[in-house]
Design goal:
Elements: E1 12-15, E2 51-57, H1 63-76, E3 80-86, H2 89-102, E4 108-111, H3 116-121, H4 129-134, E5 160-161, E6 163-164, E7 167-172, H5 173-178, H6 197-206, E8 208-209, E9 225-231, H7 245-250, H8 270-284, H9 291-294, H10 299-304, E10 308-314, H11 318-322, E11 328-331, E12 343-345, E13 349-352, H12 359-369, H13 372-379, E14 385-386, H14 389-401, H15 407-415, E15 418-420, H16 427-442, H17 447-460
Parallel strand pairs: 2-3, 2-4, 9-10, 12-15
Antiparallel strand pairs: 1-3, 4-13, 5-13, 6-14, 7-10, 7-11, 8-9
Helix pairs in contact: 1-13, 13-14, 16-17
Length: about 450
């Protein structure tokens, strides 16, 4: 799932004063009597008089960019003081959901496509339509399709796009060279669920057992592997964003009966079953780590520790992979039986809590977060691809200046080989069904029968 950070990150908060950019964590003060001097009334309000807006996000890597946005926003809006706070993924969502009940939810928070349908259905976040219309916000400035991700069938809009992400793969350059493989071949890989295509040939050649024998050589010991050719990300639950969705989609599979707000899921489809069976087959061959390995250690950690030679990842993880002590290359997902490569197209947005005491001020902050002014600031950090094309281009240029080619992530958007995150009601209930089912499958259960049972349960929700 997008942006998951396994461990709790240190809470970081920034309260930026309403004028001058000085830090000030004081609560808004009671109204003071009007000054007799007319000139004094034209002075910006002191920070203690500003309306305080709490803004929450989960990704520590994105914190500096949004701190810059808060500074710029408060300089331009002396009546509002924004406090930016960050928590790791699991604690973040616990805080949001319990905050809705206790009345302590942040005014504005980064939302996810897996979460917002339920929040909207239970009226825990505000529809933005009236605000968008009143301020004549131009929603055509974003990459095509991003705005629609945040609109329910009733037409209510619950977020404005802040970024987008896709999936690609990365390889340890040293391991690639040791295997005698030309990096240029990575852009032309193919995959199928029968023999794995040239993608399986790649991960076989990159797998090395404890005796130095490669996966494509006689005598390879699949029970005693030193380096797995492919670092499996995880079981994937019901979304499989970085885990298996890109393979299944390239095999012609779709999540549900329609791109958005479907009511019939296809987890029992043979195209999906054979995709998962192929992943299980490369685990059995020793080309990918078994469940007990990939469930205990994050896929990026396995990769950076040299235990895997390749792994799939989301574009929000680029910076983390570049922190490895060896050089890496990003390459696109392989071309599947459909004749195309595939990637999930996901995007985050910021939502306003229905419990906020300052909805108008919260909207001003949300509007700024979705603007070119903020997204251009975020682009300079090159952590994610902003939702506005010009800002996303800045990210490409920043990375290119660092000698990093990120086209493996952008090619999907440029060539139209993306599919959308499965946005539907009952997301939490679906995950509660599919999470255990996928774990059972990767620990020995029969794929077809387990998926058939789980799919029936999921569809019964509707």
């Amino acid at each position: 799932m997008r942006g998951k950070i396994p461990a709790l990150l240190t809470v970081a908060a920034l309260t930026i004063a309403a004028c001058g950019g000085d830090n000030d964590s004081s609560e808004p003060a009671a109204d003071e009597p009007a000054a007799a001097d007319e000139a004094a009334s034209d002075e910006p309000a002191a920070s203690g008089d500003a309306v305080s807006i709490r803004y929450s996000l989960w990704d520590a890597n994105q914190l500096p960019g949004y701190e810059s946005c808060a500074t710029a926003f408060n300089d331009a809006n002396p009546g509002i003081s924004v406090e930016v706070e960050q928590l790791g993924w699991d604690d973040y969502w616990t805080g949001i959901t319990t905050g809705f009940v206790s009345g302590t939810a942040p005014d504005v928070f980064t939302n996810h496509l897996a979460r917002y349908p339920e929040f909207a259905e239970t009226e825990q976040i505000l529809a933005l339509n009236d605000y968008i219309d009143a301020d004549s916000v131009d929603t055509s400035i974003y990459f095509p399709g991003l705005v629609n991700l945040w609109a329910r069938p009733d037409g209510n809009q619950y977020g404005l796009p802040k970024d987008w992400d896709t999936i690609a793969l990365t390889v340890n350059n040293t391991m690639l060279a040791d295997a005698g493989i030309d990096s240029a071949t990575l852009t032309n890989l193919t995959w199928n669920p029968q023999d794995g295509g040239t993608f399986e040939e790649l991960i076989a050649a990159l797998s090395v057992d404890a005796n130095g024998v490669r996966g494509n050589e006689e005598g390879f010991d699949a029970s005693n592997v030193a380096v797995f050719g492919f670092g499996l990300v995880g079981t994937g639950g019901g979304n499989g964003q970085t885990e298996w969705s890109w393979l299944a989609a390239s095999n012609g599979w779709t999540f549900m009966d329609q791109p958005f707000w479907g009511t019939e899921f296809n987890y029992d489809d043979p195209a999906f079953v054979e995709t998962i069976d192929w992943i299980k087959s490369v685990i059995a061959k020793g080309y990918a780590p078994p469940f007990e390995v990939f469930s205990a250690t994050g896929h990026n950690d396995l990769f950076k520790a040299g235990q895997t030679a390749t792994t799939s990842l989301g574009s929000w993880e680029i910076g983390d992979i570049l922190a490895a002590e060896f050089e890496t290359t990003f390459f696109p997902t392989p071309v599947g039986p459909t004749g195309d490569r595939s990637s999930m197209f996901n995007g985050l947005a910021d939502s306003i809590s229905a419990s906020t005491e300052h909805p108008d001020e919260a909207w001003e902050w949300v509007k700024f977060l979705a603007s070119a002014d903020c997204q251009n600031l975020v682009a300079e950090t090159a952590v994610i691809f902003p939702a506005i094309p010009e800002a996303a281009e800045t990210v490409k240029n920043v990375r290119a200046g660092q000698g990093v080619d990120v086209s493996a992530f952008t090619v999907h958007v440029e060539n139209g080989t993306t599919f959308t995150f499965p946005i539907a009601d009952y997301a939490a209930d679906r995950d509660a069904i599919m999470g255990p089912a996928m774990q059972d499958i990767f620990t020995g259960a029969d794929t077809a029968s387990t998926l058939a049972d789980a799919n029936a349960e999921v569809n019964d929700l509707f």
